[in-house]
What we know:
This protein has 252 residues and is α/β, with parallel strands linked by helices.
Amino acid sequence: MQIIWGDKEANFETLRKLMGHIHPETDLLVLPETFSTGFPVGLDKEAVRPMAERNTGVTIDIIKQIASDYKLAIAGSFIADSGGSLYNRAFFIEPSGDEYFEDKNHLFTMAGEDKVFSRGYHRMGVRYRGWNLAMAVCYDVRFPVWCRNVNNEYDALIVVANWPEVRVNAWNTLLPARAIENEAYVCAVDCRGIDNAGYTYDGSSAVYDFKGKDVSVRFDENGLVYATLSRERLDAFRAKFPAWRDADNFKL
Length: 252
């Protein structure tokens, strides 16, 4: 998705137009991190505060309406305000209106994210259409302990990001590594555009299977990446190569 930094209405309009191109059999649409505003690089807390909303604000209202209209789930993140504290908040909205939220755990200190947002302490877990899903937000994916899949608690890890082109090789390396070590799919979405600090984002997005193979099957002119996940292939691989049974036993 091409993000216009700081312009919610423009980004909502982009999303509405995008929905006209979504394949009708799509079960889940994944949007980039902070899709409605862009990631606020180098801004202080009070400059970011006007971008923030509660979970009952316009951003989630729009997501809920689109999810209902198109009968699919939507995942992403937005800038949230809870009790005066700001959060980079991931969301997963089902077409029924059921909602799940988590706050980004690892805050990107290089960009001053820790000075603006408060961190979260819980990783999201969702059961959706027969799949167990977890979410990570951008910088979180650099930390394998946070992403660790203990006893196959998730089948797919959704990663939403504003990951700049200057460091995109790390992004493209970490994602298949998370898939391999956790014997799970990884569905990862980055944005396109230029942020308020002048960094460019090239939209590197893909779906990796449990062997770390890119299984994205289509990339069209609208920036849509498609993939079909196979429950049978995942279960068969985990049974044939049960490395998860030998994983280290630890807790955060």
